[in-house]
Amino acid sequence: MTFFHRHKWLAPWSLLTPGLAWLAVFFVLPLGFLAYQSLQSGIFPSYEFTWEFGNYGDALSDNREQLFRSFRYAAIATLLALAFSYPLAYWIAFRAGRWKNVFLVLVVAPFFVTYLIRTIAWQTILSDDGTVVSVLRTIGLLADDGRLLATSTAVVAGITYNYLPFAILPLYVSLEQIDRRMLEAAEDLYASRRKAFLRVTLPLSLPGIFAATLLTFIPAAGDFINAELLGGPNQAMIGNVIQSKFLALIDYPSAAALSFVLMALIVAAIAVYARIVGSERL
Amino acid sequence: MKALRGRFLDAYATLAIGYMLLPIAVVLLFSFNDPAGRFNYVWQSFTFDNWVDWDAVPGLRDALETSLLIAVLASLTATTLGTLIALALVRHDFRGRAPINFLIFLPMAAPEIVLGASLLTLFLNQSLLDLGFWTIFIAHVMFNISFVVVTVRARLVDFDRHLEEAAADLGATGLETFRLITMPLLWPAILAGALLAFAISVDDFVITYFNSGSEITFPVFVWGQAARGVPPQVNVIGSAVFLAAVGIMLASVIVQTRRRKESTA
Q: Is this prediction's ipTM beyond 0.90?
């Protein structure tokens, strides 16, 4: 007989209701309003609901370039983040020994500095009068008037960096959970280290790779901060368009339609990806 | 060959962690810079002035106070609501568990810009509440509930319910059991959820920016300065928060690691 058993009024639904109500009113309902707004037409401030499905077609055709660029940047950044994070997560899980928690703190530490300040630090590092640019110019990897800021490279590098912990942590968790006896068994059966990695470690870490991909790709596709601070007008992503339509141009219907287009494309990309990962595992 | 491969991986890990810390080193370094103009991009000379006069930039202190106040209120509210949901999910069997799990997962998976934009359309289509402090608060509670649920639930799964039954067997009343057994055991999980919510709230820019109206939080303040040149005092705040957070985390981790060593020795 515990507190919760005795007090029948504390049955699950009374525990659930306050939080779920908050999510219903401030998460689900707003999506309804976003949909409602996306089907309006007219000019600010007198938008009217007219089942204006044309907004969706316009959102796609007017922003094809930025949509394509967002998904390209997000895909490249996700691949780079995985390539960077996998060996690091592997090292922490298998080789850092007793101090692995200290290294985990070091890896997460940069993210205790506000996202914006971190990105502004990259602005400083990559700036035209910075050390990196002058070194690259000296060794000839960059033309004498070449820049790093306002390039796709800078934006993709910024996105990759900013979402690294979302790649490292799930990879670490999946690698850490691997039963070390499986690897010993592979060794006993004369598998080379390479083969043991490819046939045991890698397949067992697939859930981590899957989670890392989603956690990096989804926010990356909707990002606008890196493009704003590290890119120029030619690096504008779909997030920049949505942001300026909502907050500067006050073009709510087309901004709302574009938000749904972004979501739909992300869901489609994930579905394709899940298909591929799922079928490989079979 | 084996040793060589190990060395290679050690070297990679060192470089990788160094790379991750590089921007933070820049933030710290430039908090001691005495910039020549408005832009704090080029190293000029060393000074402690920015740390001493951290309050010299108009609007910075207000923004910081707004951020902290919202983070405290939003993390308390979200922790309460989220903990209740986690308790229901772990301790009760009921229908509708799958859709509830899905509803809790969605706000964490959706792109921030969509969360911010949709909430803005809700606020625009009503007249009870103007954009400002309370709309930011509502937004922060909304996206923090899911994180609290996930954090608290993960730790509640290990909760040994026999302890509560034992307390009851020994004659404790329901309230005594809750106060003496349940709460002390739940406390670390709740605290972890609250700290996470606080950290996410202080750091949030995108959703806040959409729903802030003319209210300015610290990230919104930094964004406003970014176009005009960020003053070194912003680096001071960033560095101070970083040093405090990492200091606390490293200290607790090192103490735990030492303790583990002693107990195994």
A: no
